[in-house]
Design brief:
24% strand, 28% helix, Rossmann fold
Length: 244
Amino acid sequence: MDKLIKLGTNYGGWILPIDCSLNENSIIYSGGVGEDISFDILLSSKYDCNIYLIDPTKRALSHYNECVKYFKNKYNISDSISDNDERKMFTGDIQKDYFKIIKNTTPNFNKIHYYDIGLWDKKDTLKFYKQNNHVYVSQSIISNMFGNQYDIIEVDSIKNIMNKHQHTHIDLLKLDIEGAEINVLEQMLNDNIYPHYLCIEFDLKLKNKDPMLLTNKIIHRLLHNEGYVILVNDNFNITFERKI
């Protein structure tokens, strides 16, 4: 049994093996940024890997830019500054444990890239639905996940994004994309793309929006057809590793 560690906040963190195979050459695709990139910051600080944040949400891009500014100015900030004072450096709905998690890290933002697009199974232009409670940052391509108001966004597949960046593989794929995960994963596997690690939040299942049991079907495919095993299942926030 692999020894595991959680990287990131209680809300936005993910569990990986302590001795996972990531390094400075690894390629990470992180779909769904929101206002918590603690997982990505810790991956960068620990492994100096190449991270591609993928999220068309305007508030997510603002949060990324605030993080860049925060770490740029970090060494001018007193070590004794309180978490409450640090929170004032950010807008949005910031997790209470965010600064405790990120403040002593050393992410390399030269290798953390932001891609302002939605993940889907093909290149397209789609509606991106907002939540009725505007405190919450997450939006969804899936029409019945949240409210009726929406933005119009560009979307694309994992394969097309890889081709654009001339990537031949992905070492870790994280998806927290509010119900679009099934379409994205199905197309990725159909394109014969197999990240070594998968960190997937299965939102259709979690939000009871999965009458066709698509979540169970894609998990079955991953486990029985594509060589993945489950390292941890935290209420359908699942970390997989490919063993072949």
